[in-house]
Amino acid sequence: MLSSTQADQDRTSCIILAGGKGQRMGGSDKGLQQYRHRRLIEHVIDKISPQVDDIIISANRNLAEYNSLGFSVVQDSSDNYDGPLAGIQSAAPHCKNPWVLVIPCDMPTLPDDLVATLRQHSRDSSLVTVRCNDKLQLVFLMHNSLLTSISDFLASDQRTVMRWLDTVDTRVVDIDNENYFHNINTVEQLQI
What we know:
By secondary structure, the chain is α/β, with parallel strands linked by helices. About 30% of the residues lie in helices and about 25% in strands. α4 packs across α6. It is globular, with a radius of gyration of 16 Å. The model has no long low-confidence stretch (mean pLDDT about 90).
């Protein structure tokens, strides 16, 4: 049995990234698109909420709709749509726990044991990310102490998540089930 101090140290927040322009979706707000009779972000919330202690939604438009889901919604600090790292930077200070799971709003079939799997590998690393079929995913568990490195990276005019991952102590976990990490990026994929 974990001590209460250890249990507190293992608590996990989640940032769901829903702040993009939706360019491949014709400019639509991807998280609010209907997929199998529900909005994409609702599928993600259903999958992830039993695995985490709190959820923050990073969104830059349609804030009332996102707020209606019952979770904190945080906008980027600028209106430039500077990418996922800017969303993480803005949302991370609102996370209540030492560990933060970062996931996109367009992966409706995430595994039910994602956090447990990533936690198994987090003891000797401050960030654990997923690789599926030799491709890194925008899915990772990070210690909140890495927020400073995100701010420094963005301040150096860098924006790419994968480049940022190269600058921090990252452990990669292979989960080779592409069904878990299938992104819904186009209107056509919403019909599948």
